[in-house]
């Protein structure tokens, strides 16, 4: 019976932070009369629009909903006449509020969409953000998660464009909430972590506390109750300091839910009672109905532990029956009150399901069937296959747009075309000069023939480049569609599972106890599975960190992409083994691979010791960089120290191994671009002249030596003894200042 308590407490998803539409104000008849008097005396359209808006707000707070909507519409007529789009957006939002309190979701959503369009025309980014937020809240309440998630992504893009931490925090928060609602807790947690970072940047204490509740929900669902309690208590401390009674009520109920693991019914009852008391203090009908219902839910959960069985069916005693009958009566009243003030299909579904189980225990199978039918109707409104499919489609669309979209394809094609035209122009100029210097007609014809061959080669090469760009774009679309189909299949599987569960539940009270047993096994199995999932997630995270820098990996996990960035203070290190081709001819394949593995494993350790980021190995070459993704003042010094350690290791290896290798090392300092390339088997890489010059330093070096450029020398000359080599010719670079590093001049921590 312990698992009945788990069910009755449930996972109470919280939607704190969802925007409210309007602002309550003074509703006295005297104030309304004053506004009407001002309206009668003014002839100015702007003034009339303002006072009609004020009148609507007063009427709305006084619950005169029809009159309020009529007043807002009159204000709207004036605002549309003067084409004040900011004001139009605000008025339409107020009209939506009027329909919302009347539980007319269809009209509320229609006006919110119109308000969003007006906000876009106004070019007021903050007003547009408010419009997105209101739509997210409205679609959430209506159970249309796909549309809500869509607007959360629009809000994220707007926040990124405006570099607004609060906007981005809200977008990640809502995205996480919708994943949470759809049962994808891992993705929810990723979004919550990203939101927490943005709200920390914005120093938004209330929203940080709100996120801590959601993160507690994640750990609760994973069976990590200590972690859940820690996050709940952090949030509790903040909201106690802020005296936010609504949030405190939500926290008391969640903290009570944690005691289900120990069957501490007394603590559960005490904490849920606190939640209801706070709701009554606030005089909030929605919260009173919600927490009141949950108090009765908990009473029933406690009672189910002691109900006996007769012929495999629940057999409550007379006293127990009386408690259950009293509880179901109160639940009905609270559920009716809740339906009067909100359209929250998620909670209404849970309420109907709870009442169905209680009626089965009382033997009222007809009533249980009615409640269960209502539960299915509510549940299908937000977790149907169609809704899941729409959610998956929207998610796939944004996942693709984060990696490669059609705009990037067009820009890439334009760049390729421009490069081709420049190269053809240079070719024409070169051969025009050659023909002008030709002495005979035969020479000129030969030059024309050569030019034509090269022109065709250039055009062929650029055709390949365009095709490659198009292929990458199409692969992105295929990937997005594949993910969409995968999510669609999962949605259909969930729908079939829910239908099977519905059919089983309608068999009667005899099946009730069987289901309870299955629920117990399922709960234990889920916790076991969650542990496995957590282990697999850690393994995948560790693998990701082997491929990418930690900061880049976190950015990729939280936002789905990592933006390439310029770093102005870096040092690039290149190594290459001398005469490797000849050595490879002497060794067997496996022996050669083993030898390279010994060297590169040692190099990896040296990079970690000196804080360099390994980029990649290319055959027998090794590339690393110092000074990214986190800038370091000593980037050049660290790179040179790492190079000297590599020389020392290679020297020791030559003394002990029969097939020891010689190595050249080149180092250069400057700016570069770093980021992820590709959408499949992606890799973190670096680009720029700094990288090319480091390669030239290696090629122009000598075995067993560290060859550095002039730019690196200027940064390390006070720390290392160096020998100037003069101007040394480098491929495609001409003469360049180069230095051999001989050793450290003195210890430098």
Task: Characterise this structure.
The protein is built from 28 helices and 10 strands. Helix 4 runs antiparallel to helix 5 (85-101) and helix 16 (318-341) packs antiparallel against helix 17. The chain is extended. Among the domains are: 387-506; 564-744, Nucleotide cyclase, GGDEF domain (Alpha-Beta Plaits), CATH 3.30.70.1230. Helices cover 72% and strands 11% of the residues. Mean pLDDT is 76; it is low at 1-27, 400-405 and 494-526. The two termini are 63 Å apart. Strands 3, 4, 5, 6, 7, 8, 9 and 10 form an 8-stranded mixed sheet that branches. With 749 residues, it is α+β, with helices and mostly antiparallel strands.
Index terms:
single chain; 749 residues; 72% helix; disordered N terminus; alpha+beta; eight-stranded mixed beta sheet; Alpha-Beta Plaits; extended; two-stranded antiparallel sheet
CATH class of the domain at 564-744: Alpha Beta
Helix content: over 70%
Give the full name of the CATH homologous superfamily of the domain at 564-744: Nucleotide cyclase, GGDEF domain
Radius of gyration: 34 Å
Q: At the third CATH level, what is the topology name of the domain at 564-744?
A: Alpha-Beta Plaits
User: How many runs of DSSP E, i.e. beta strands?
Assistant: 10
Profile the largest sheet: 8 strands, mixed
In short:
With 749 residues, the protein is α+β, with helices and mostly antiparallel strands. It is built from 28 helices and ten strands. Strands 3, 4, 5, 6, 7, 8, 9 and 10 form an eight-stranded mixed sheet that branches. Strands 1-2 form a two-stranded antiparallel sheet.
């Amino acid at each position: 019976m312990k698992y009945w308590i788990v069910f009755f407490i449930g996972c109470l998803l919280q939607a704190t932070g969802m925007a409210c539409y309007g602002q309550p104000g003074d509703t006295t008849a005297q104030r309304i009369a004053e506004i009407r008097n001002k309206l009668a005396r003014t002839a100015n359209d702007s003034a009339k629009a303002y006072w009609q808006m004020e009148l609507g707000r007063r009427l709305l707070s006084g619950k005169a909903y029809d009159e309020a909507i009529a007043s807002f519409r009159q204000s709207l007529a004036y605002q549309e006449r003067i084409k004040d789009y900011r004001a139009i957006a605000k008025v339409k939002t107020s009209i939506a509020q009027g329909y919302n309190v009347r539980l007319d979701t269809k009209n509320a959503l229609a006006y919110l969409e119109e308000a969003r369009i007006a906000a876009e025309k106004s070019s007021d980014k903050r007003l547009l953000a408010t419009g997105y937020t209101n739509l997210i809240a409205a679609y959430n309440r209506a159970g249309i998660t796909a549309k809500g998630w869509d607007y959360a992504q629009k809000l994220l893009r707007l926040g990124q464009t405006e570099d607004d931490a609060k906007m981005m925090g809200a977008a990640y928060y809502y995205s996480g909430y919708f994943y949470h609602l759809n049962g994808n807790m891992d993705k929810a947690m990723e979004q919550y972590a990203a939101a927490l970072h943005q709200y920390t940047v914005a120093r938004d204490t209330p929203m940080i506390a709100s996120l801590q509740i959601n993160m507690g929900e994640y750990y609760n669902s994973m069976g990590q109750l200590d972690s859940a309690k820690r996050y709940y208590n952090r949030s509790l401390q903040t909201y106690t300091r802020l005296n936010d009674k609504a949030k405190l009520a939500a926290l008391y109920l969640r903290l009570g839910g944690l005691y289900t693991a120990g069957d501490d019914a007394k603590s559960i009852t005490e904490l849920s009672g606190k939640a209801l008391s706070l709701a009554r203090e606030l005089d909030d009908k929605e919260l009173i109905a919600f927490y009141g219902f949950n108090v009765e839910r908990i009473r029933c959960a406690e009672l189910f532990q002691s109900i006996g069985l007769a012929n495999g069916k629940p057999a409550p005693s007379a006293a127990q029956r009386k408690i259950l009958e009293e509880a179901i009566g109160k639940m009905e009243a609270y559920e009716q009150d809740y339906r009067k003030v909100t359209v929250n299909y998620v909670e209404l579904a849970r309420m109907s399901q709870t009442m169905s189980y209680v009626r089965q225990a009382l033997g009222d199978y007809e009533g249980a069937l009615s409640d269960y039918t209502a539960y299915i109707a509510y549940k299908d409104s937000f977790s149907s296959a169609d809704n899941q499919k729409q959610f998956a489609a929207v998610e796939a669309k944004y996942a693709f747009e984060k990696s490669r979209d059609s705009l990037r394809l067009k820009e890439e094609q334009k760049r390729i075309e421009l490069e081709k035209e420049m190269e053809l122009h240079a070719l024409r100029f070169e051969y025009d000069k050659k023909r002008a210097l030709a002495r005979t007609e035969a020479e000129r014809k030969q030059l024309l023939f050569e030019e034509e061959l090269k022109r065709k080669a250039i055009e062929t090469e650029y055709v390949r480049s365009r095709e490659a760009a198009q292929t990458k774009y199409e692969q992105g679309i295929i990937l997005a569609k594949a993910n969409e189909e995968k999510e669609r299949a999962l949605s259909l599987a969930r729908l079939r599972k829910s239908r099977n569960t519905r059919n089983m539940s309608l068999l009667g009270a005899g099946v009730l106890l069987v289901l309870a047993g299955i629920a117990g096994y399922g709960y234990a199995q889920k916790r076991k599975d969650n542990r496995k999932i957590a282990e697999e997630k850690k393994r995948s995270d560790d693998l990701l960190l082997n491929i990418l820098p930690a900061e880049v990996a976190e950015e990729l996990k939280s936002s789905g992409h990592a933006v390439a960035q310029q770093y102005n203070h870096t040092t690039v290190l290149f190594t290459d083994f001398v005469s490797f081709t000849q050595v490879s001819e002497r060794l067997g394949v496996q022996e050669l691979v083993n030898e390279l593995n010994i060297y590169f494993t040692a190099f990896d350790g040296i990079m970690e010791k000196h804080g360099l980021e390994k980029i990649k190995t290319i055959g027998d070459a090794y590339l690393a960089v110092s000074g990214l993704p986190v800038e370091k003042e000593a980037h050049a010094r660290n790179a040179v120290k790492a190079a000297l350690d590599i020389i020392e290791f290679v020297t020791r290896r030559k003394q002990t191994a029969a097939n020891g290798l010689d190595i050249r090392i080149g180092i250069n300092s400057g700016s570069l671009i770093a980021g992820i390339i590709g959408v499949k088997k992606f890799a973190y890489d670096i680009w720029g002249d700094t990288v090319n010059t480091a390669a030239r330093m290696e090629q122009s070096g000598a075995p067993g030596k560290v060859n550095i450029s002039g730019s690196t020398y200027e940064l390390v000359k006070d720390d290392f003894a160096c020998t100037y080599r003069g101007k040394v010719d480098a491929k495609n670079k001409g003469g360049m200042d180069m230095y051999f590093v001989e050793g450290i001049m003195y210890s430098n921590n």
